[in-house]
Design a protein that fits this description.
Elements lengths: L20 E7 L24 H12 L5 E6 L8 H10 L4 E3 L4 H6 L5 H8 L9 H11 L10
Parallel strand pairs: 1-2, 2-3
Length: about 150
Amino acid sequence: MNRPAARPDYLNIDFDERPVTVAWEITRACALACRHCRAEANPQRDPRELTPNEALGVVDQITELGAPILVITGGDPLMRPDVYAIADYASSKGLRVALSPSATALLRQTPQPSADEIKKGLQGNICRCTGYWNIVDAVTAASGQEVPDHEA
């Protein structure tokens, strides 16, 4: 991805004028069905999803908001074959881009990952917020393994 030449002054943005962050669910497709997910994911992509050209048009519209941070999410955004083209285009327009994929690719590569492998697979994709361990547990459950009791 291309780095924007200059980043907006995020500390001095007037929230009454523009957003700092835009989260864009580019697909509802995801091989997982996590309880914590609000995306109502489906295993297949919806044929009504935006075309690649329409998606680039949305990036242009987001850029007009004053270069917010763009979080590309879904479902699993990696289920869209053009996700990297969208991210590259957004970056070339001066947006800071973050990608928030599910663990589908990890589970295809390692069907029963250890907790450390799950953490490594999620590294850089999500914050270590209060829901982090729920996400690790959801990936563990999706792999068919027993979820550890964190209360013990």
